[in-house]
Amino acid sequence: METVAITPLDTAAGAEQSHDPLRRQQAVVALGRRAVAAPDSEILLHDAAALIADMVGTDRFLVAESDPNGGQLTLQLVTRQRYGGNKPLVHHVALDGAQSLAGYVLQVGHPVAAEHLAADRRFQDRFLSRHGIQSALAVPLCLPHRSFGALAACSSHERIFDAGDLLFAETVAHVVTTAVARCRVEQALATERRLSAGMLQTVGAIVLVLDARGQIVHINEACQRLTGFSLDEIRRRPVWDVLPVAEELDLFKSIFDGLRHGLGPVQFESCLLTKHSERRRVAWTYNTVCDAQGEIESILATGIDITEQQKRQQPEETPDANTPAGNPPSEPEERNRQHPNAADSRKVPVRRPSPINVERRSRPRRSYPYRQSIAPVQDGELPDPAEFYQVQCNDIAAGGFSFLSPRPPESASIVVALGTPPSLTYLHAQIAHVTRMRKEGKWVYLVGCSYTGRAFY
């Protein structure tokens, strides 16, 4: 948080200046100009509280912020200094008018002067008393149906606040309340627009909106029809506790962990267990909705029920693979045609079930039942030789290969070492898609990769 530089009024001349009506009007205008520029809410609140303390002549100020659910206040008590600011004293208290001055002023909805704080019978503010506050003037930051917190000028010695002090503090509070409310509404509208834009692209699909922790916030009617659950039955429950079958819990959790670490959009297939214990096969796409700072606001999950389609088709368990060992692609055009999203290491396209006896690749595959070494690429850095580990390959073709793994890949791109030491060929490869399958009675992941170029060690 930005520190607040305030010059204390430690002289009689300074005290007279603080009560100058023109100076107070100029201070309110300056604050209003800052509020129009939409600064960070926390900085605006601290500046406003410091301004009130400056104008009424106290040595400390208090900022109280309501949490989003309205059940608690976070109090920050700051000592004014001539140069810069200091670290605030922080305290959390219930939003109860009897337990704090800030809670009381929000309860009554108008400015309150507590000139003998310890003896005040309207409330007991142990936090302020414990830190030597003798007198305080507080104003609420509230609208008719919503409160944001309160501001207070606090003094370490007993003093009287006049009507001009209360009027000035209330004026500042109105300016700040309007600015904070406008910012909150704009943020909420921006979030709604982003969510709506994503949902409009999924008409006819089942849609779930999750929060950043994976808890269900909203589902559409298609999802309710397919699963049998109403929104009230599953709201605020983690998605992996509601939809997946037991053997696919780890799959859902690993995909969610990948989303939180920047892997997305993620496309995969899984079984969905309905309220009536019916299994449905769903092709999912999970993607994140981020705020202006890049932090995850919500996760949008869309799915297509492919149960009947899968019954009519023969599942094909081998993923795309397009290049043989030791023969890396030499033509950029060919690599782009085979995998147009190769430059975006986070996108993993879903593999849809293919029609019977239809080969999806332009070049024939061949079995490749050998163990080869791979290593994940993290943050675009070439992996260290010590990070390579062996996997069981499945097949190979003109643009990539596939391998079996007991767990999903931990990154969207890898380096593979093909051949036998010391004659190894190192290639960059992009994860094309991942399919969960049973092999010899165990669940494994069939990972298809497309080569994107040679790696040099």
In short:
By secondary structure, this protein is α+β, with helices and mostly antiparallel strands.
Model description:
The strands form three sheets. A six-stranded antiparallel beta sheet has the order 3-2-1-6-5-4, with helices on both faces. It is elongated and about 90 Å long. Helix 2 runs antiparallel to helix 3 (41-56) and helix 2 packs parallel to helix 6. It is built from eleven helices and 18 strands. Helices cover 28% and strands 31% of the residues. It has three domains: 12-187, Beta-Lactamase (2-Layer Sandwich); 201-312, PAS domain (Beta-Lactamase), CATH 3.30.450; 332-356 and 363-454, Roll (Pnp Oxidase, Chain A), CATH 2.30.110.10. The protein has helices spanning 12-18, 21-36, 41-56, 101-108, 126-130, 163-200, 221-227, 231-234, 249-260, 307-312, 332-338; strands at 60-66, 72-79, 89-94, 112-114, 135-143, 146-155, 206-211, 216-219, 266-273, 279-290, 296-305, 366-367, 371-376, 389-396, 400-405, 413-420, 423-439, 442-454. It is an alpha+beta fold.
Which series of helices and strands comes N to C? HHHEEEHEHEEHEEHHHEEEHHEEEEEEE
CATH superfamily of the largest domain: GAF domain
Poorly predicted ranges: 1-14, 315-363
Major β-sheet strand ordering: 3-2-1-6-5-4
Whole-number average pLDDT?
A: 79
For the record, the CATH class of the largest domain is Alpha Beta
Q: How far is the first residue's CA from the last residue's CA?
A: 45 Å
Largest sheet: 6 strands, antiparallel
From the helix content, strand content and strand pairing, which structural class follows?
alpha+beta
Provide the β-strand percentage band.
25-35%
Task: Characterize the overall form.
Answer: elongated
Named CATH topology of the largest domain: Beta-Lactamase
How many runs of DSSP E, i.e. beta strands?
18
Number of domains in the coordinates? 3
CATH architecture annotation of the largest domain: 2-Layer Sandwich
Number of helices: 11
Radius of gyration: 31 Å
Helical content, roughly?
25-40%
